[in-house]
């Protein structure tokens, strides 16, 4: 009886986390669209010879904006929610570690081997979405994570401009599409 109760408790925690993640699909959309727009804008600015804006500048502007928006949303959500499951804490901690590791990796690669930056970024995107997808049992995130890993391999063998487009495709598959699916499920109450 105690084993069954423990299994029911675990299943309830996973279900609660899935419901909370559905509400949090907005983070996938926020970060997915910010990275997608930054990658495409960077690509287009590289093609435009008389640009007045340095193309890499789109990244700190859009990522900074997404970071500020995430902090505001998170602060509001934390006021609304008082109890968090261990799974929610794990996912939140995993994404925090993801962000710190991603920032450090970008700093290192841009200073020593810039052409490896986006393949490594895609590896991290794969790690985050795959892990979250497995934990909350949401297949589109798992598929998005695997797709990012595959794209990371291909990205390592192409020139910089093409890497920007591969990165945009990666966030479309791993963040934007799952984010919209999470949003739809949340609206339908499934």
Helix content: over 70%
Separation of termini? Answer: 29 Å
Principal-axis shape equals elongated
Q: Main sheet, how many strands, which sense, barrel? A: none
Oligomer description: single chain
Number of helices: 7
Query: How many separate domains make up the residues?
Result: 1
Report the average pLDDT across residues. 87
Structural class: mainly alpha
Q: What is the total tally of β strands?
A: 0
Detail the poorly predicted runs: none
Lay out the secondary structure.
Blueprint: H1 2-23, H2 25-47, H3 58-80, H4 86-112, H5 117-136, H6 139-155, H7 160-188
Helix pairs in contact: 1-7, 2-3, 2-7, 4-5, 5-6, 5-7, 6-7
Explain what you see.
The model has no long low-confidence stretch (mean pLDDT 87). The protein has 190 residues and is mostly helical. The two termini are 29 Å apart. It has helices at 2-23, 25-47, 58-80, 86-112, 117-136, 139-155, 160-188. The chain has one domain (17-47, 58-78, 86-188). Helix 2 (25-47) packs antiparallel against helix 7.
């Amino acid at each position: 009886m105690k084993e069954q109760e423990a299994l029911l408790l675990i299943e309830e925690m996973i279900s609660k986390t899935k419901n909370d993640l559905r509400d949090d699909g907005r983070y996938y959309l926020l970060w997915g669209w910010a990275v997608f727009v930054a990658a495409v804008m960077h690509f287009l600015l590289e093609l435009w010879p008389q640009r007045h804006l340095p193309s890499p500048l789109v990244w700190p502007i859009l990522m900074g904006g997404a970071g500020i928006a995430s902090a505001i949303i998170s602060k509001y959500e934390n006021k609304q929610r008082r109890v968090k499951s261990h799974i929610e804490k794990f996912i939140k901690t995993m994404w925090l570690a993801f962000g710190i590791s991603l920032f450090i990796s970008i700093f290192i690669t841009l200073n020593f081997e810039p052409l490896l930056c986006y393949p490594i970024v895609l590896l991290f995107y794969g790690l985050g979405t795959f892990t979250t997808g497995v934990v909350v049992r949401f297949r589109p995130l798992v598929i998005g994570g695997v797709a990012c890993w595959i794209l990371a391999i291909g990205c390592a063998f192409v020139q910089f401009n093409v890497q920007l487009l591969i990165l945009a495709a990666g966030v479309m598959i791993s963040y934007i599409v799952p984010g919209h699916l999470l949003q739809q499920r949340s609206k339908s109450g499934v």
